[in-house]
Design brief:
Spherulin4, alpha/beta, globular, Spherulation-specific family 4 protein, 210 residues, 8 strands
């Protein structure tokens, strides 16, 4: 199974060796989250466009990163970013970040998921970072139900409702992890990075020697 969802937030010009390692791992990848500038940016970035093309040619899903600011970001701004990811980078999926987890925002995110699919996203991933209301599983392909450090991950539980869905519908993103640390979700990414920018590192077995 292709199990790695890699959110790698480094510019290809700064870490070409690391991006080479990501592309080389194509057979293991569920997908890659492309994040040029906390979203697509205000203009196309040639470096990210080139690496997105390499990923697509290798058969890897490219999920465009779009921040929703826990439902506070205007709908039109989110849709604009979805379209920019499609038009500038050929993204064939959407990774919506900072997604609410409660039932009160289900309609809001259902509408965003519909807009993402209208924009060409074959895969819609929602990053709640925690276990959300079960209703989100009705319209998203992938739910990120944990994002946080390894120490917190070891103590995290799993609600019973998830057993009603295939395991590949759920993802765990874990940082500050030691070598050999493994995630329990079918889709996952476990990296050594810490601090404010943990997703500037790759999983231990992908990260090139520096």
């Amino acid at each position: 199974m292709k199990s790695l969802l890699v959110p790698f937030y480094e510019h290809p010009a700064d870490r070409p060796d690391a991006w080479d390692a990501v592309v080389a791992a194509a057979s293991r990848l569920y997908g890659v989250v492309l994040n040029p500038a906390d979203g697509p940016g205000t203009a196309p970035d040639p470096g990210f466009a080139a690496v997105a093309g390499r990923l697509r040619r290798a058969g890897v899903r490219v999920l465009g990163y779009t921040d929703t600011d826990y439902g506070r970001r205007p709908h039109a701004d989110v849709v604009r970013d979805l379209l920019r990811h499609r038009d500038w980078y050929g993204a064939d999926g959407a990774f919506l970040d900072q997604v609410c987890s409660g039932a009160g925002t289900l309609a809001h995110y259902r509408r965003l998921a519909e807009e993402a699919r209208s924009a060409g996203a074959a895969t819609v991933a929602l990053n709640h970072g925690v276990h959300p209301d079960p209703g989100y599983a009705e319209f998203a392909d992938l739910l990120v139900t944990f994002e946080g450090p390894w120490d917190a991950y070891r103590a995290a539980g799993i609600p019973s409702w998830t057993a009603a869905h295939p395991p590949e519908r759920f993802c765990h993103l874990v940082y500050a992890a030691p070598p050999g640390a493994r995630a329990g979700a079918a889709v996952h990414c476990v990296v050594p990075g810490t601090g404010a920018h943990p997703w500037g590192t790759l999983p231990h077995n992908l990260e090139p020697a520096r």
